[in-house]
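Example (one chain per record):
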Amino acid sequence: MLRSVLLTALLALSASVTAQDFDYNYLTLGYERVTLDDGSFDVDGDGIGLNGSLEIGESFTIFAGYGMAEFEEQGVEVDADTLSIGLGWHTALADNVDLVTGLSYEYIDISALGLGFDDNGIGLGIGLRFAASERMEVNGGVDYVDYSDGGDDTTFGLGFLYGVTDNVDVGLSGEWGDDSSAYGINGRFYFGN
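Predicted structure:
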């Protein structure tokens, strides 16, 4: 009896979520509040970022992102610019879940008091896109970056998107790394529809 009740409930829940074709042609603009804390210093800053994805074929994407953040500590301004360019692959795990992976080139440039430091490396990422409803997407993943001089970093991310129209989503996101955390609000425009 309990088994048939659970089976009926699972079928009812799965029937309420229709097949979802995720769109991988988009531009996202966002604002983030960033905290850097490595034990020896703790500083907060603001950043903006522009990210995009373009689907090539049925399972591959080209993606890129650019971010700028500004921090101020004891009257000293620190600027950080990041660039990411890569190739992604995605596949459906279920009607409403896609597995997303990516390999990227990463670049960072940090400047303060007229001095600068830049570094580059390779990034790997894996995540999921889940259509919680017709208008709500939940996404999450893990990213690993190995810089040439600056070591490596692993970040975990979680985001929510709500479709206000067929081509525009608004959302919230969070990222947590070894020495940093970021919370953001963003808007995404789909151009593949």
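Caption: The two ends are 45 Å apart (CA to CA).
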